[in-house]
Amino acid sequence: MTILHIDTSINGENSASRQLTKSLVEQLKGSQWGETVVYRDLAANPLPHLTLDQFADSSVLDEFFVADTIVIGAPMYNFTLPTQLKAWIDRIVIAGKTFQYGANGPEGLAKGKRVIIALARGGFYNDSSPAASLEHLETYLRGIFNFIGIEPEFVVADGLSIGPEQRDSSIKQALGDTVRLAA
Ligand SMILES: Cc1cc2nc3c(=O)[nH]c(=O)nc-3n(C[C@H](O)[C@H](O)[C@H](O)COP(=O)(O)O)c2cc1C
Question: Would you say the CB of residue 76 lies under 6 angstroms from ligand 1?
Fold first, then answer.
């Protein structure tokens, strides 16, 4: 069993999402979820924006197919996902490989993988918050993974830009969630 560990934050050591993916992978490694860990840092080694030529290179898709569990760190940038992560998604959402259109509409072909996403957001986006309509990170990631046949699980650290106390308590609570999720 293989875990694919993906980080995307540009914040290096200060990144909350990196702390959370590290904790998730530490818990999952050696369990039923994975003996081997493949690490991809999309901030340190970004994939280029998609071009037609790049459809010929299936290395990112192959790496995705080999993984049984995928752990992704996803900070919110400008109300959505980092472009680094979008470039990765552009390489795994491929007609005929991870989805197809049939008589009943679109069908996901990547069923059976476990995807856990660590979200880190500066503000709050719950349904009752004034910013709820600007939430295009969790909704997008849930939608795109559903489209290819996967129901992602989320660990969430919100309100990270509100102040140091809120940041500490959000990260602490989310780290606790990583332990529960991985158990
Ligand atoms: C370029 C940039 C854009 C951001 N845009 C938003 C935003 O639209 N909404 C928000 O709630 N937080 C925003 N933030 C705050 C980050 O989501 C927050 O700092 C989070 O902790 C980043 O994840 P990280 O700690 O893993 O780097 C932004 C941060 C950066 C650096």
Answer: yes
